[in-house]
Amino acid sequence: MATPSTSARKPNAAFMKPLTPSETLAAVIGPEAVPRTEVTKKIWDYIKKHNLQDASNRRNINADAKLRPLFGKDQVSMFELTKLVNAHLK
User: Fold this and answer.
1) I need a labelling partner for 28 at 20 to 30 A (CA). Which of 13, 45, 49, 66 fits?
2) What EC number is given for this enzyme (predicted)?
3) Could you tell me what percentage of the chain is helix, strand and coil, using 3-state DSSP and rounding each to the nearest 5?
4) Domain range enclosing 52
């Protein structure tokens, strides 16, 4: 009979590996290498600080001058955000 593992679940190393942002992304979150989880957090901090969530549909993010080159359009849904940002990480 196998005994259940008592160790805590380890975070996925791929999420914790620091990645370098492109120049476009660095304009929003800064130039230092950070894990993916921190990148997402910093982008949301920026979106909330500058009040960029669409008033009528909070799931949409309106791009300002810094986010437009990152998104490639004027508005994206929060579900597209991660995919678009991943293209700017090395």
Assistant:
1) 13
2) 5.99.1.2
3) 45, 10, 45
4) 15-86
